[in-house]
Amino acid sequence: MKILHFIIGKGNKQRSNGVNQVIGGICKYSIKNEINIRVIGYASNAKEQGEIEYQDGFKVTVFSYLNKKLINKLIEDMKWCDCIHMHGIYNTHNIAVGILARYMKIPYIITPHNGFAPNLSNLKKKVFDFFVQKKHIEKATAVHVITLEESTEILKKIKPKKFILAHNGIDLEDFPVNDDEINTKINQRLKIGYLGRISKEKNLVNVVKSINELLQSGIEIDFYVAGPKSNYLKEVLSLNSSIKWVGPLYKSEKIDFIKSLDLFIHPSKADVFSITAIEVLALGTTLLITRTAKASYFYNSKSFFMCEPSVFGIKKGILQAIKGRKNWNCMSKNGKQLVKKTLNWNVICKQLIKDYKEIL
């Protein structure tokens, strides 16, 4: 089987963008499972048209704008492939690729990467959906969703022909699960942390407000935030001068940061069981995640605490985690088993390949 991936970006999984990590995992483990792939990327910072970027186990041919070289490359690769897998929505390049695919009668699959989440919607997107994107998606062979909840959100706007489900995961070569390493640390002050993109939908303002209320009640908490600078970060830091921002962290620094925490919080209002949250489970750190981060279907695994994204909900979630501290080691073991059995790219790609075969 031959799959052509069309992506926005260069597929570098070391970037903070979770979409790149998904693409990196799918491409690497598709090859390991004997699927032939090619990857074309659109990135405005490409140094030259058709430059080659080598990623972990695969390469990406990158273009900075829609031009003759890109069109010729698309036609060449479309003639080669059995199916095109497009990543992302709300961009005209994917629309153009979809038009070309339909003209050449090549099946295509779309991964919205949670782009239809209600919290991310606005008037401009609604207009784009109605006049442009609705046809593009409804003509697709299938839409790949990362969680079941995501399919419900899509159906409120668009009626795809078919859904396929393949969750987010992690690369066990990067995050090997050590069953013998158990979360037994107890910091004198509860050390809570967040790592990832710092933007409005990540809901960090409500985290700080809830921590402020807990501090006033006498609970000792230190809150650490890891991620790149943003205007939203300024708003977050303005709410409490004692918040510790440590900047963006990658590779070993990222792992050390997660392991140093008592409790990792993923407070997003719009997500699809983020890869960072799965990395936290693999490393054995206790996880508190919002219901709106779409982890509900894994709650029965007893691997994490879950809460609502409001100030009240997050405050109750932190208190629940503190009260249930005697269960943290058991939850750590459950989380590691969940990652080993389900939420890793090798397992996920095997399922995705089965879905490819069924729909093509």
Question: Could you characterize what this model shows?
Answer:
It is a single chain. The protein is an alpha/beta fold and 360 residues long. The chain is 41% helix and 19% strand. Strand 12, helix 9 and strand 13 form a beta-alpha-beta unit. The longest helix is centred in the middle third of the chain and has 16 residues. The relative contact order is 0.13.
In short:
This protein has helices at residues 18-32, 68-80, 92-103, 123-138, 148-155, 204-216, 231-238, 251-260, 275-283, 311-323, 328-341, 345-359; strands at 2-8, 36-42, 51-54, 59-63, 83-87, 108-111, 142-145, 163-165, 190-195, 221-226, 244-247, 263-266, 286-290, 305-307. By secondary structure, the chain is an alpha/beta fold. It has an eight-stranded mixed β-sheet, with helices on both faces. Strands 11-10-9-12-13-14 form a six-stranded parallel β-sheet, sandwiched between helices.
Number of E-type strands: 14
Task: Name the helix and strand elements from N-terminus to C-terminus, one letter apiece.
Answer: EHEEEHEHEHEHEEHEHEHEHEEHHH
The SS-based structural class is alpha/beta
Q: How are strands sequenced across the largest beta sheet?
A: 3-4-2-1-5-6-7-8
Helical content (DSSP H or I, runs of 4+): 40-55%
Please outline the major beta sheet: 8 strands, mixed
Range of strand content? 15-25%
Number of helices: 12
Give the C-alpha Rg. 21 Å
The averaged pLDDT comes out at 94
Low-confidence stretches: none
Judging from the principal axes of the Cα atoms, what is the shape?
A: globular
Distance N to C terminus: 10 Å
